[in-house]
């Protein structure tokens, strides 16, 4: 499973990430950070495809996306199918 990490202290609640996410993984939470901004939270972690659109659009670099390594073994160099 892929993983999205929100740094809530950097989040200013602009919600650009919620619009950019094609799977609606993120949503505005009811929590506020120390600066008084209503932060974003991950609501559907299992639906994340790790496209990182949320992290790319975040103006405050508050989002990190971690991709699960593929379990498919890659073929050795020089192998022919």
Which key features would you list for this structure?
single chain; 81 residues; alpha+beta; Alpha-Beta Plaits; two-stranded antiparallel sheet; 4 strands; elongated; Putative Ferrodoxin-like protein; iron-sulfur
Task: Explain what this protein looks like in three dimensions.
By secondary structure, the chain is of the alpha+beta class. It has one domain (3-66): Alpha-Beta Plaits, CATH 3.30.70.20. It has helices at residues 16-20, 53-57, and strands at residues 3-6, 26-32, 38-42, 63-66. The strands form two sheets. Strands 1-4 form a two-stranded antiparallel ribbon. It has a two-stranded antiparallel ribbon with strand order 2-3.
Concise structural overview:
By secondary structure, the chain is of the alpha+beta class. The protein has a single domain (3-66), classed as Alpha-Beta Plaits.
Q: What structural class do helix, strand and pairing data support?
A: alpha+beta
Give the low-pLDDT segments.
Answer: none
Named CATH topology: Alpha-Beta Plaits
Secondary-structure element sequence?
EHEEHE
The radius of gyration over CA amounts to: 16 Å
Could you tell me the mean pLDDT?
A: 90
Q: Which oligomeric form is depicted?
A: single chain
> Could you give a short account of the major beta sheet?
2 strands, antiparallel
Strand order of the largest sheet: 1-4
């Amino acid at each position: 499973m892929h993983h999205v990490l929100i740094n809530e202290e950097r989040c200013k609640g602009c919600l650009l990430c919620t619009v950019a996410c094609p799977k609606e993984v993120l949503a505005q939470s009811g929590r506020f950070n120390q600066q008084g901004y209503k932060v974003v939270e991950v609501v559907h972690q299992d639906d994340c495809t790790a496209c990182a659109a949320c992290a790319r659009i975040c103006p405050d670099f508050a989002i990190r996306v971690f991709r699960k390594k593929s379990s498919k073994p890659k073929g050795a160099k020089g192998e022919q199918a």
